[in-house]
Structures are given as structure tokens and as C-alpha cells.
Write a structure and sequence with these properties.
Layout: E1 16-23, H1 34-42, E2 51-57, E3 60-66, H2 67-76, E4 79-80, E5 83-90, E6 101-108, H3 113-120, H4 125-133, E7 137-139, E8 142-143, E9 156-159, E10 163-173, E11 179-186
Antiparallel strand pairs: 1-3, 1-5, 2-3, 4-5, 6-11, 7-8, 7-9, 9-10, 10-11
Amino acid sequence: MAGFGVTAEEKDLFPLACLRISPLGAKFAGDMSHRDVLGSLMSLGFERSLLGDIILREKEAWVFCAERIADFICDSLSSVRHTSIKAVRVSAPPAGELFRTRREVIQVASERMDALVAHAFQLSRGNAQSLFSAGKVFLDGAECLRTDAEPREGQIISVRGMGRFRYLGAESRSKKGKWNTVIERYV
């Protein structure tokens, strides 16, 4: 569900809530990971489809969710990993860039999806290929079953349970003929 330029009158058409999750004792809390926050939310018994993006900022997280479960999350979620937290409704996510990325150069034999996934997540090519048949690889949000697909510059490749990155294209060739490809990993 997404709404762009939603007016106050149209707010009911997009029943989304934004929650801020912060530690009770920030001095003693560690940074939260996407996996930690999602795991804690899923342990409350929700389907993944009711939860949207999770935005991380050091020791805090902002979560988009369906309006109908927001109050339950605020009342029931008490910890993320080993940190006691509080969840409250907020009117907007944090200001500034929502997602942070890190530019990386990876060397691949070809610009095929299986090679990119294998090198980006430090897997063998065979293990990367099994992710495709398991339906865990997505190209711009659509399931990708073809290991030989070649992404276009700017497309986002995500692997369920591992992360996602934006493919920026091949930069150059190495002396051994491999492609030096550039990705922006979401961190």
C-alpha cells in the first residue's frame, strides 16, 4: 500500500501508521538491526504483509504498519533483542534520508543475477542459485526465478532474509577479465 500526495481528506484511504521504537535506557542499548526489529514484531503473531518498511537510526527504529495493528504493537512490544523498548505513534518518519547505503565494488565473472547475489552476500554460486528456486530473490520487488537474468542499472535486488542492494552497473574489467561492478548496499 502506498499513497503519494495524500490529502487530509484522503487519509482514510491509506490506513497506515508510523511507529517510533526507542530503548528505555539509550545509554545501555546497542544499535538495532532490521532483523532484530522484524523478529520482535513477527513474534507478536502478525503476517508480514501488515508490516511495511523499517527505518533504522542508530538506537531507534521507525516502522510503518497497518493502522489496525498499531495500538496493539505499542501496547505489546516491550523488547527488541535484549533491549527494553517503548513503541509510540508518530506523525512522520525521521527527517532526512530514509535509507542509508554503502557503495561497494564487487568482482563477478558475468553480470548475471546469480553471480551478483553470490558475491554481494558472500555465497557460493550454487547456494545463490538455490535462493532463486526457493522464491527468495526479487528484482525491483518482483520475484525473480531466472538465475541468468541481467539487471539494468538502478534496479534493486533483494534477497529475503539477507538484505538488498541497488545495482549500479559495471565500472571496468579486471586484468583477468572479470567485471568490477558497483552496488549500493542498504545498511
